[in-house]
Amino acid sequence: MRSLTILQLFIGISALAGGYGIIIDPSGDNLGLEPEWLKGSVFSSYAIPGWVLFLVIGAGNIAACAGCLKRKRYAGETAIALGVFLMIWILIQVIIIPHNWLQPLYFFFGLMQMGFGIGVRKQLKSINPDRIDTKSKLRIRTNRVK
């Protein structure tokens, strides 16, 4: 679980930084992004991709990291979903933007996140398969002997 937490924290911080850099300059000039790369896409600037990067990948991974630290019930499923999203994000980038050394690296991070998520999902279910967060106001089953 520690590896997943560190990976999510790293992905989250780097996506927040990259997304913020795009949000403050939607032309992408400050990050070396060329406006020509968007020709043929649905975007006229990098603003929407910047917000998706910031909110979904950045904030999503920070929130997932916190959930993993607290051993929340859906920490594994969240990691799997975010890992798949990151891989799809990178595949779309490869189609639109010329090859960059970060693309295969972050695709691999997404694959690792998905793999770690599967492991965490199994681990949390084996520890206590009936555990449900107390804040969800659902009944928590225990295996107490009376």
Short description:
With 146 residues, this protein is mainly α.
Topology of helices and strands:
Elements: H1 2-24, H2 47-69, H3 75-96, H4 102-127
Helix pairs in contact: 1-2, 1-4, 2-3, 3-4
Describe the structure.
It is a single chain. With 146 residues, this protein is mainly α. It has one domain (2-136). The chain is 64% helix and 0% strand. The protein has 4 helices and no strands. It has helices at 2-24, 47-69, 75-96, 102-127. Helix 2 (47-69) runs antiparallel to helix 3 and helix 3 (75-96) runs antiparallel to helix 4. The longest helix is centred in the C-terminal third of the chain and has 26 residues, at 102-127. The two termini are 34 Å apart. The mean pLDDT is 88.
Assess the beta-strand content as a share of residues. Answer: under 5%
CA-to-CA gap between the ends?
34 Å
Average pLDDT figure: 88
Q: pLDDT under 50 segments (min length 5)?
A: none
> How does the overall form come out from the CA principal axes?
elongated
Number of helices: 4
Q: Count structural domains.
A: 1
- Encode the helix/strand succession as letters: HHHH
Biggest β-sheet, characterized? none
For the CA atoms, what is the radius of gyration?
Answer: 18 Å
**Percent helix range:** 55-70%
Which structural class is indicated by helix and strand composition?
Answer: mainly alpha
- How many runs of DSSP E, i.e. beta strands? 0
Question: What features would you highlight for this structure?
Answer:
single chain, 146 residues, mainly alpha, 4 helices
